[in-house]
Amino acid sequence: MATVLVVLMVVSAGGLSPPCAAAAKEEKPVVVLPPAAAPGEAPSADAAAFVRSCCDTALQADRDGSSFCYYHLLPYAAFFEGNQVKVAEVAATILSTNLWVYVDQLRKVQGGAGKGDPNLNACVDDFSVAAGENITREALQSLGRLAAAGNGKRSKEDLENAQKWIKGVEKPYNGGIGKASGCEIGYLFTYSDDLPAQKTLGYTFDTASSLINHIKL
Question: Which residues form the signal peptide (predicted)?
Answer without folding.
Answer: 1-23
